[in-house]
Amino acid sequence: MKKVVGLFAILLMLLSLSVNAKRENNELDYASTKDIMDINPHLYLGEMAAQNMVFEPLVLNREDGGVSPFLAKRWEVSADGKSYRFYLRDDVYFNDGEKFNAQAVKLNIDAVLANKARHAWMGLINEINQVNVIDADTVELTLYHPYYPTLTELGVTRPFRFISPKSFIHGQTKDGVKDYAGTGPWMLAEHKKNQYARFVVNPHYWGKKPALNSVVWHVIPDRQTLLLALQKGDIQMIFGADGDMTDMEAYQAFSSKGQFATLMSAPIASRAIVLNSNRPITHDIFVRQALEYAVNKADIVTGVLNDSETLAGTLMSPSAPYSDVKVKTYHYNPDKARALLTQAGWLLPAGQTVRVKEDERLTLLLSYDTNNAAEKEIAELIQDNFKQIGVELSIIGEEKQAFLDRQKRGDFDLQYSLSWGKPYDPASFVSSFRVPAHADYQAQLGLASRAYIYKLIDDLLISTDEIARQADYRELFELLADEAIYIPLSYSRTKVIYDRQVTGVGFNVSQYEIPFEKMSFRP
Amino acid sequence: MMKRYLMQRLLMMIPLMLMISFIAFFMLNLVPSDPAEVALRVSNIVPTDEAIALMRHELGLDKPFLLRYLSWLWQVLHLDFGQSFVLRTPVLGELAAALPATLYLAFVTFVISLVCAFSLALICLMTKTPWIDQLVRGVIFLLMALPNYWLALLFIWFFAVQLDLFPVSGLQESGAVFLPAITLSLSYIGLYLRLIRGAMLTQMQQPYVFYAKARGLSSWQIIRRHVLRNALPTTLVSIGMSIPALIAGTVVIENIFAWPGIGRLCISAIMGRDLPMIQAYILLIALLFLVFNCLIDLLQMKLDPRLRHH
């Protein structure tokens, strides 16, 4: 039904006349389905794109996997890899007028560390031993181990971004902050909960000031209304990763309209199906391999994703650091899949459509989050693929919480696994394999090689030897491919639909950030 | 007499509210998700066993069910509905902030529905040509049958995008209330029209109308002076009871029109398994139903003196 309504809304839009966008006061109107919420940079309640507008990191992650100086103009790493000395810019002020200096860095990092439990997904949290102020503009971070993704993790959107110590409450940020004074190009001027937030240019900004005067973040929870608002010109941009703001149908409909432009990022995050090795049927590697061969990925990418994503042969996109590794790939081959199932003892009785083994039917369960429109269609295609080889796949779409509950219980044979994309991949992604609430953890429980997988992850994260680390990654990816624990499907891309009057639209390295500061209206 | 009745009704509301609160608390406890885990997850804390145990203790979930219910009830009696798991703010504040928007939308919807339904009912009754009556009813029932989220999108496209008469969504701009209110009112116009027209038709067949006609009164005079007055009490009950339903029924429309009311709050609470918020929402809506029920009864008594003797 939703699809019918969606198609209908798009049809209406194509029939409609063009309406000029509003651009009063050099103000960009952006809309999201979500409110910015509490943008405290040390917590996770707020929208990352909004947090990124106001709060800045010490270093900036680059597309090529490296980092560039930012609030820290340079840094030195000790020979043992356990100490990082940052030399800070001396021209940076928080938007409340407070100076950004080594003391502010220490207070912020200490405030983050005071709330360790909340940041358990990030390896760096447990590696930081001390933060020392060397002088007004120099700060030193000492680690327990030479944790290699240190700089990358310092650069991600949260939690290591800086808020004015004046905004702290009782010297802490974990229970809230007084206001949102950051060093970023924007400052939050007004916020009407669940309605809109207005960001204006930070007058104290140390870098190149944005060309726009302000950005208004409107909240429109319904995706069809969002498109209609864009059509009318109430908003000038929709920006979103993995179908959370817009789908491919809308994207294509708007591409063909002269007034709007569309843009897609390079492949960012991996979309895969994870096979649960801890369940009776999928515990058998022959079954898992058969399922790998049964999925027609080209059909998924063309038929469901309308070629908006790139077909994936490997779990991680080869463009991610350490991930350009030749591993075993499984190309669509239903005959081979059937042969493997027969070899595993799953036989197809005459006149039947589902294979059986000792009176048990080959029925599997795939669960997905109903919020994601594409996942349902992909699941249906896989269901059809599996049917061809005599496997019955039941699909359960559940709303997010129920889906997560099932994930944590490990009560699934197949589930989607989405990586976070750059700059989190591959380090944070593989690190999260060890977190019990993740599908990856549950799915790997039945592997004999699990302990070895964890050892590889532990080693590669704290290895100081670049070659050894690459070797560990290679071994890890080879092992995961051999164990046939993931069916890589595609590499997702971030999509933007915007009014042609807006220029400078592009992407940050992280799919969760939006570079508003580079945008302007066409003269 | 009235005062005693009012007291009785108010006292009756206490056990009813207690029952509702218990049922709401009990039912939400049957939800398979562990509230402690949900609370952890929304804060992006990895739900390890220790973290869950800690959170269960913090939320008082390690106590027996009845004790938890009683302590929750005690807090509610002190107007403390607890903290939202998702928003980390007091539930009462969130509801209080969102309620005016919903009441405003419901009020405008109610006025539009009532005015339209009355006018249409009069047209239907007074027209000498039967097909007009049938046409009006036909069109209204057709609109009633259409799903309102579909109509909402259609209206936005036509009235907001094409004709630029109204804003697409939100509450900031003037006139923003009309599109959601008109969409919502379509289902209520049909309902009210049926009620008013039915009640008035019944009255029109009463002997007093026949005698009034014999006295030479015009149809308009008969309807205005007699029929309306007599038809009112019966329709009033249903219309009155539809008000809390109206307030509770704005959920879908609020979502489509980005209206910052309690409907949207409720939807996101359900999606996020925000138990304190859902519990407070249920209590609020239940209270609205009881209060309106009571008010309508009192109004009915005022209009129909016979009821006072029962």
Q: Report the biggest beta sheet of chain B as strand number plus sense, adding barrel if it closes.
A: none
From the N-terminal CA to the C-terminal CA of chain A, the straight-line distance is 43 Å
Overall pLDDT metric of chain A: 90
Series of secondary-structure elements of chain B, N-terminal to C-terminal:
HHHHHHHHHHHHH
Overall 3D form of chain B = flat
The class by helix and strand makeup of chain B works out as mainly alpha
Sequence stretches where pLDDT stays below 50 over 5 or more residues of chain B? none
Number of helices of chain B: 13
Radius of gyration of chain A: 24 Å
- The assembly state of the depicted protein chains is heterodimer
Strand order of the largest sheet of chain A: 14-20-13-19-17-18
Helix/strand structural class of chain A: alpha+beta
Would you mind describing this structure in some detail?
- The complex is a heterodimer of chains A (523) and B (310).
- Chain A is built from 15 helices and 23 strands.
- Chain A is α+β, with helices and mostly antiparallel strands and 523 residues long.
- Residues 14-22 of chain A have low confidence and may be disordered.
- A 6-stranded mixed beta sheet of chain A has the order 14-20-13-19-17-18. Chain A has a 4-stranded mixed beta sheet with strand order 1-10-9-8, with no helix packed on it. In chain A, strands 4-5-7-6 form a 4-stranded antiparallel beta sheet, covered by helices on one side.
- With 310 residues, chain B is an all-alpha fold.
- Helices cover 76% and strands 0% of the residues of chain B.
- Chain B has 13 helices and no strands.
- Chain B is flat and about 85 Å long.
- The relative contact order of chain B is 0.13.
- Chain A binds chain B through residues 5, 8-9, 12-13, 16-17, 19, 37-38, 43-45, 117-118, 120-121, 176, 192-196, 218-222, 224-225, 228-229, 231-232, 234, 399-402, 404-405, 408, 435-437, and chain B through 32-34, 37-38, 41-48, 51, 87-88, 97-98, 149-150, 153-154, 156-157, 160-162, 164, 167-172, 255-258, 260, 264-265, 271-273.
